[in-house]
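Hello Y.,

Per our agreement to keep a running log of every chain we model this quarter, I'm adding this entry. I've kept the format consistent with earlier entries: sequence first, then predicted structure.
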Amino acid sequence: MKTTRTELLSQHLLREAGKFIRYPHRTGKPFDSELGRSVDETAARAQQNLARKAEDRPVFSSPDNAELSPATLDDRFCREQLRTIPRMVEVTLRLKRLGSPSKPLSRETEFYLREAAKCLLFGLDAASAALARGALERHLWKLWCDSVVSKRSAIRPRWDLEKLIDNVLGRHRPELLEPAHQVRKTANATLHRRVITPEEAMKCYEAARAVLFESN
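Predicted structure for the entry above:
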């Protein structure tokens, strides 16, 4: 009996996209040829121009940018999105394995956490870590406020996140200190322009989620 290989839709579409060459470049070559490299190089040059200061050089002043048409960008972005789908599937399945909180988080904390997950999905690792940090900080301040007997007379201390973690979690949930500081350190690394890996971003999100759910 003849067996058929199971192919994912994203793999099929990306393979079919390799056959598509826009007019007037219909030479029969696959996309990963001179035309593909040309599109890649054009997009890279455009990014460099956009990053330069306006006083140094006008944006789109290079003749090469004449190639940067809507059709070229459409072609480029479609292929890039297809290449990211397998990673998006992997991230979604990993997020699905995480547990749920025993009681709902605050609206603000849940918003930060949800946006952090979206950033993970689309490969925005630094943004995900920063949002996970924001969710943690917002949650800890709420815990502090809830623990204050007289909320009207309470003066919010001027703690940074490190002191906030130590004072709120150190007293009642010391087992959560390590994951909380892991979130803080990872997010701080992104603020100091250190590139973090997708795995570091995922672990940062998982640690933040664990602290939020277990201390809620």
